[in-house]
Amino acid sequence: MATAFRATTTGYRADLEQHERRLLGSLCADVIELLESREDLAQEDSTPSGAEDPAFAHFRAELAGLGGEEPLAPPEDEVLRRLLPDASSDPEQAGQFRRLSENSLRSAKMADLRTARMLLESTPVTMDEDVAPIFGRALNDLRLTLASRLRLHSAEDAERVHSLAVGPSAKDTDSFMAEIYTFITWLQETLFSAMTEFLPEHGTADDAAVAGDAGAGDPEPGDPESGDSGPEASGGAGTSSR
Amino acid sequence: MSSAEGSTLSREETDLDSEFSQLLSAARPYQVVVWNDPVNLMTYVSWVFRSYFGHSKARAEKLMMQVHQEGRAVVSHGPREKAERDVTAMHQYGLQATLEEAE
Predict the structure, then answer these.
(1) Which residue of B56, B74, B97 is in closest CB contact with A207?
(2) Which of residues 53-112 of A touch B (CB under 8 A)?
(3) What is the ipTM of this complex?
């Protein structure tokens, strides 16, 4: 039986059974494969004239990124749509944003999942502070994937999945997925509970500026640039250092 | 930019004109909205808000509860470029996020 994630002097550690590590690792591989399949489709989409010099295709894609071009349609697969969601409720805007950013988001997710897969190869599963968020994001993507496959869209669905997981062990695909989903939920919860202990209580953003944000819909339109630089700088530093 | 005058402009002026309007559009304030979903854990969402935006514990938990109870919360705003960066970061963390023009 696995033990929860806990903080150590060098980062975080969980003891997982071999079959648990294998299962999580192969799920990572499945999601990587799914994300890769989107690449093929997206490239077919943007390469109308058959074979093309890849370097030129890249250059053309760059150019396309600068001019107004065809928006990229969202993936048909429900899991991919959840992992690579629309960035706008307006379909045209969402498609334009997708054309510019989906590829890098997809690559970032595959990189996270590859890192997680590698970490799952040794026992105990250990990671330092910089890698823990990556592993945590990968666990989240596994949960999003399983949740999509389990048609988990509401609080009621979450109840249904929970009772599937704890119910009598009738081994259909759904109850098996529900069990894994519940296991990963627990693992992710213990990891982030441990990680939360190490965040500064008062934050790193300029809280005066942030508090101003709290009033809904008063973004100080007269001064967007200077009002923005504080939180942006600290937000950026916070993520890039990870 | 009136269209009657536009017809008498030289090509360069027209380009400058459209560049200017692009700059204006880029400077319009945007906001990033995070939407509720039944999968992302409260612990996780709070951690993301604290870690990525540098929010205090109290502020992050308030935003997280707003997402949870009201279905959505505005988590950042600024010029379009910043909003785009933030929405992509939220997507990388697996949160449902969209950008929209700030009211």
Answers:
(1) B56
(2) 83-89, 94, 97, 101, 104-105, 108-109, 112
(3) 0.77
